[in-house]
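Fig. S4 source data, part A: sequence.
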Amino acid sequence: MKIIVGLGNPGLKYRNTRHNAGFLALGALAKKYRIAIKKRGFSGIYGIGRILQQEVVLFEPLTYMNLSGEAVKAVCSFGQGEGLRGKKRSKKDLLVISDDFNLALGRIRLRQKGSSGGHNGLQSTIEKMGPDFFRLRVGVGPAGPGGFEEDRHLMDMSAYVLSPFLRGERGVLNEALGKAVGCIETWLTAGIKEAMNRYNK
């Protein structure tokens, strides 16, 4: 069984913000495969289903970003929820989806392990799980007329990632979410290396 975690902040206030790109990608995957993310447990909500013959758990922590690792560790350990009891998972079965300020909007990047890149949710997960879990980053960074590298240093990163996507960005965002879904499908069916080769461009 694979566990796919989308990182974000719970509540209406944060629903469509850039920092919730992990939730949005997980939601796009759940919608395509009609998996309801409604069960409560492990300091979050989750749904169990099948994607391309693979049994999966789709999980959203409800701990807020800074404590995401506690919820991820809980769902990856011996469970108490329906369908999860007594099954311990390997970190090779875990994929964590997050936003990434250092990637321009529209880009995604899959990695086998690594640092948090300054992302509080990933940092919390690393503290609880170690650095060697798969992670998919969904770019939310600015790329204005001055160029991405210039613009990103002029902005307050915290305020930026907690701001909502603009109407004119929705098309690019939806394309990126579609790529994220395709990347996850490839990871499930062909493995991490093939997914990285196809989508890390």
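Fig. S4 source data, part B ends here. The chain has seven helices and seven strands.
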